[in-house]
């Protein structure tokens, strides 16, 4: 009889993995995001491949929670090698408590770090509101007109091309960029974050009672996304880690932790 490998998981170790991956904090995340999330807390229970093996053994390897399989995104036509070089913005609908009524989430995303730079919820689409959002984003990131020119990319909706917004961009020294005609996914990263938002556990599918409730919900989402969400496109860093230049240190710490705990 072939001897069992010395590193074979015990039943208790497997049960611990199942317990963790199905906990409220991680039940909607794949192992590729759970492992770095634990590592950032100084915890290590198993490698990504081991977690997948255990999930398969327990017939739990498919998508858990309400998430869908990831969709491959078209590469942006813009390039950034640091934060605050290219921003993308878009508007999406949030359901209100009254049938047929919606609130509108305006959101600016950084291309390099995927950080939510600024957001607001309004009751209509308007270039005036978009202009206010851009000015607020500039202040939050301490941008000044004499810095390297910033690109703001969006689709071709009327709020994105309104005169008030364009005047604001000129005043701030921002270069406007719009999606190419007949290219439906030319603002794919902004669309991707809206998918993440709408498949987030607790998303108010039955509607939000008021605009204040909508703003409260988005505030919680933005904090989670920027500070806790381990983004697959960022080597499972959080957007805030990437935006603040902490990526190399965080990845080195994870590598060191996995080496120590594997021995």
Automatic annotation (TrEMBL):
Any Pfam family the entry gives = rve
Which residue ranges run through the membrane? none
What would you give as a GO molecular function for this chain, any one? nucleic acid binding
**Looking at the record's lineage, which domain of life comes first?**
Bacteria
Q: Which InterPro entries match?
A: Integrase_cat-core, RNaseH-like_sf, RNaseH_sf, Transpos_IS3, Transposase_IS3/IS150/IS904
Chain ranges of the Integrase catalytic domain: 79-247
The GO annotation for biological process reads: DNA integration
The protein here is known as IS3 family transposase
Q: Which organism is it from?
A: Alkalibacter rhizosphaerae
Lineage, broadest ranks:
Bacteria, Bacillati, Bacillota, Clostridia, Eubacteriales
């Amino acid at each position: 009889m072939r001897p069992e490998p010395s590193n074979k998981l015990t039943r208790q170790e497997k049960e611990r993995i199942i317990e963790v991956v199905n906990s409220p904090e991680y039940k909607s995340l794949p192992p590729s995001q759970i492992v770095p999330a634990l590592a950032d807390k100084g915890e290590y229970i198993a490698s990504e491949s081991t977690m997948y093996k255990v999930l398969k053994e327990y017939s739990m390897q498919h998508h858990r929670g309400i998430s869908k399989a990831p969709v491959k995104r078209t590469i942006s036509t813009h390039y950034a090698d640091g934060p605050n070089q290219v921003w993308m913005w878009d508007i999406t609908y949030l359901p209100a408590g009254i049938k047929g009524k919606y609130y509108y989430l305006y959101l600016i995303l950084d291309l390099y770090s995927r950080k939510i730079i600024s957001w607001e919820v309004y009751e209509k689409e308007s270039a005036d509101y978009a202009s206010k959002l851009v000015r607020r984003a500039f202040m939050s990131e301490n941008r000044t007109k004499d810095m390297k020119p910033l690109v703001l990319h969006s689709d071709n909706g009327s709020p994105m091309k309104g005169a008030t917004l364009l005047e604001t961009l000129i005043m701030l020294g921002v270069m406007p960029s719009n999606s190419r005609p007949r290219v439906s996914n030319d603002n794919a990263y902004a669309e991707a974050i809206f998918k993440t938002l709408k498949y987030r556990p607790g998303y108010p599918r039955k509607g939000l009672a008021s605009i204040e409730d909508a703003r409260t919900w988005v505030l919680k989402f933005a904090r989670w996304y920027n500070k806790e969400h381990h983004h697959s496109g960022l080597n499972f860093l959080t957007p805030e880690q990437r935006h603040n230049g902490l990526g190399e240190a965080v990845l080195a710490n994870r590598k060191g932790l996995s080496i120590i705990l594997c021995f």
